[in-house]
Protein: NUDIX domain-containing protein
Amino acid sequence: MARHAVKLLLLDENDRVLLIHAKDPQTQAECWYPVGGGIEPGETLQEAAAREAYEETGLTELPPGLPIWHRDHTYEYDGRKFDVHEEWLLHRIERFDPRPTQLSEAERHSIFGFRWWRAEELIETTETVFPPGLGQLMGELAGEGWGDDGRRTELGEG
Structure:
């Protein structure tokens, strides 16, 4: 059974997205990925987003997010496979310096930084970014008015 998760596209006033820099403890492979995580029993999508933003970045006031994407995905971490169903929310926020408040044990050992990225930088980077093609997806979303029409798009596997 797939774990339900929320992923946050946290965009600052200059359309930069906040990504987490982490390393898989088993493979030592580095990657960048957006804020987010599992939805706890009884939580709404927005409540889970606010909790994850606070835990992973210290952000205390998260405006409601606009649903933009969803995907079913399988990933490997620390030698294990995880099936997830992700719901993606777009949140417009002011840029801030992330300061995690409640990381899990695994996160404390794998997360070692944050960065605000422009779509063009994500397209050009040779570093591993999840989901693949995030820069292009952001460009497409910007061209559509950042999801202002309220449509959700299914992301491909990756």
